[in-house]
Amino acid sequence: METPQRSLGLMACIALVMGNMVGSGVFLLPATLAPYGWSAMGGWVIALAGTLALAGCYAALSRQLPGLCGPHAYVERAFGGQASYYAAWSYWIGVWVGNAALAVAVVSNLTVLWPALATVPGLGVATSVAVLVLVTLINLNRASVVSWFQQATLLAKLVPLLAVVGIAGWLLLTNGAAAVVTPPAPMEAGGVITSVTLTMWAFLAFESATVPGDKVIRPEFTVPAATIIGTLLAGLLYMAISAAMIALMPEAALAKSNAPFADFAAPFVGRETAALIGVFAAISALGTVNGLTLMAAELPRAMALAGQFPPRFAGLNRHGAAAASVWLASGLAAVLVLFNVSRSLAGLFEFFILVATSAMLIGYLAVALAAVKLLGGALRLVAVAGCGYAVFALYAAGLEPNLWSLGLVAAAWPMLAYTSAQAKRRSDKMARAAL
Question: Which domains does the chain have, with CATH numbers?
């Protein structure tokens, strides 16, 4: 079996974590959270704390089991092959469904410059599929090419984020308290809980560095460091941006904004320049599609190597990429987009992120339970906290998304039965040949 080259260092892994986390959510959430005012900041704090607890599980397990490929391997070590298969399958479902949402988000953000993408029937869906094809071709190259693209898009996507923080800092330094249009107010429990639910999407994929573990340089150090650092930096950036917009934009204007970043920046850089924020938001989502495509390819490969997926998905092409797995994940995402052609871009995005969030949380809970079993001391307490947060987040996600994700996870059983039957036939054939 081919052995992939270890080419991903600390900066590349931090870029993978932040690039996958900082996708479309941060560009859309300020308007969604606006009705909850400062209570939204309580939601961000709880979501960041809960995500860091889950990240601590992944970081500790990656240090204890270096070089293994993420959720599949950790759960297998704790509970055996069948449990790890279902955990990896649920996580994989979340990744490629999330990729479908992000491909739609790329196109949705570009409607600021090209409104026809939203008004011409079928054009937005066709362009979303084209985005998936583009990123598939990138991921069929060497890991270094994928990493370069990820780092390039991360730098591009940080421009509008840092611009908002910079404008907010300038306003506060020059005008002081007079710049604040929504002064801090007491938080309400209902608003905090709802905000936690809404912010879950922005924290998904914090574990990205653990998935391509066999391609990482010094994985015992690089993977846990990148997981914690990337999660913390992304979370603090989210909170800074959310606080700036809550404080410095009128609540009514923020709540009805279709492009909150552009509307926030427009008074200072002009409306035409601010429209380019849509391009940066599209680049942000595109970088996340790239990173999640890598993850969606590595998971079937890991399962195939464990004998839980058809053997063809274990192979690598001449560039060291899991080509069959790349095409499978991108193809499923494209089919999902095409099957929902009747929905608007906004409707597509909302539907996909709810299902993806629920499915990935099942995988997170499985890894947290594995950490409870495998870790000791204070790290076990962190793992218990991670379990509690995962259960709460599943409850907050709602019944319908959970039913959809459970239905997709149930499809794991026939695939496992098929793979087991194929393995038995190969074994019987080899036994007959040996006689």
Answer: 10-421 (1.20.1740.10)
CA angle 251/256/260 to nearest 5° reads 80
Closest among 157, 92, 102, 93 to 129, alpha carbons compared? 102
Strand partners, 8: 216
Q: For residue 216, report the phi and psi dihedrals to the nearest 5 degrees.
A: -100, 135
* 398 φψ region: left (φ > 0), alpha (ψ -120 to 50), beta (else): left
Q: Per residue in 168-184, pLDDT tens?
A: 888 888 888 888 888 88
Q: Let me know how long the chain is.
A: 435
Asked whether 257 and 31 are in contact (CB, 8 A), the reply is yes
* Per-residue pLDDT tens over the stretch 13-69: 888 788 777 765 677 678 778 888 899 999 899 999 999 999 888 888 888 876 665
Q: Give the Cα separation of 262 and 171 in Å (integer).
A: 17
* Dist. CA 130–CA 339, nearest whole Å: 15
216 DSSP β-pair partners: 8
Question: What is the C-alpha to C-alpha distance for residues 66 and 222, in angstroms, rounded to an integer?
Answer: 10
Q: What pLDDT sits at residue 380? A: 93
The residue with tokens 């362009």 is 127
